[in-house]
Design brief:
The chain has helices at residues 25-41, 74-91, 117-122; strands at 13-18, 43-44, 47-48, 51-56, 60-65, 100-105, 108-113, 131-133, 147-149. With 166 residues, it is of the alpha+beta class.
Length: 166
């Protein structure tokens, strides 16, 4: 059953997906409609799940489940990936490519290929304080630190050692 995202408890489980581009107004309408219908019927072993979603920065989808209400099963989680594939088919926006890392550069989200991170940091294109997004958030509460400097995220391992010496 769908509930407004803000009504879910802080410890609700979340999954974050990055769009290959920013969503247009029409794409946002389509995504919202498809996810609303999905969340309304999302269930695990016949038991309805208390679910929601939110769109962040016009480029990220966050799906959420209140595990205190009912725990999702592997099959129910697989069905959520299925709805993302459906959205991809309708909109042409890739939501499942984890090989690009989003950064906020000049107030715009740029997707940097994973193999290029080290070089971009070495060349000073990306800096220790360049903002990235907490794609590894596992609970709604973790989204409180949605934007964070690269040095405070998992991409810190790609920073040159000199970036940490201030």
């Amino acid at each position: 059953m769908f509930v407004p995202f803000e009504n879910l408890p802080a410890d609700s489980r979340v999954w974050v997906y990055t769009g290959s581009k920013a969503f247009t107004e029409k794409e946002t309408e389509i995504i919202t409609e498809v996810l609303s219908q999905f969340c309304e019927q999302w269930a695990a072993h016949g038991q309805p799940l208390q679910t929601s979603f939110t769109l962040l920065e016009n480029q990220f989808i966050v799906l959420a489940v209140n595990e205190d209400y009912h725990t999702p099963s592997g099959c129910s989680i697989d069905s959520s990936v299925g709805v993302l594939r459906k959205i991809q088919e309708i909109t042409g926006i890739d939501l499942l490519d984890r090989s690009r890392v989003p950064f906020l550069i000049n107030q715009k989200i740029e997707l940097i290929p994973l193999p290029h991170l080290k070089i971009q940091f070495q060349q000073g294109i990306l800096l220790a304080d360049t903002l990235t997004f907490n794609l590894q958030a596992s609970t709604k509460q973790h989204l409180d630190t949605w934007k964070l400097p690269a040095e405070s995220s998992w991409v810190a391992k790609y920073l040159p050692k000199s970036a940490f010496i201030q």
